[in-house]
Structure of Pyridoxamine 5'-phosphate oxidase family protein:
Amino acid sequence: MFDTLDAVRDDFTRRIESAATDRHLPMHLAVLSTRDADARVLVLRAFDRDSWTLRFHTDVRSPKCDIIAQHPGVGVLLYDRSAKVQLRIRGEARVETDGPVADAAWEQSTNFARRCYLGDGPGTLAAQMTSGLPPQFEGIEPTDEQLIPARPNFAIIQVEMREIDWFFLSHAGHRRAQFARQGEGWEGRWVAP
């Protein structure tokens, strides 16, 4: 099944492409780790195969945005339990609030999703359990006009992939390969699991 490095590269490429577009796949939810050793689950929104870039959405007021600005090196973990495949990705992240990619990401989002950026910033202290949303938007989809104040809080995180560690669990014996970006392509090698 995975007997060549080309087959492994095809496998991880296909998995990432599919996960970015199919919310039902396990790898659609990724774990992003920043320099401060903090990890959080984010939705994989897009994958650009030409630039080997992953895209996530975030609130620009989130502490992770400041961490990434200071230390852009990040890790991304994708795991598919049923397929027994784990991808550990290292890359360089950047936060974008403006520009064609961020604008398109905002436009492609639903108003229900955009409402998350209307409320308090992530980590804001609260006297009681809260969604952080203004009360008038709890369970309600705002109008385009009501969402105008939300747009400045919206950002994307672009992660340019530099290294991939592919791991396959198997009763016959686990398999592992590592890949590093070399120009436009990837250079791979087998390693012991």
Summary: Strands lie at 29-33, 39-43, 46-48, 53-59, 73-80, 85-96, 154-168, 175-182, 185-190. The helical segments are 5-21, 63-70, 100-108, 111-114. The domain at 5-190 is CATH 2.30.110.10 (Pnp Oxidase; Chain A).
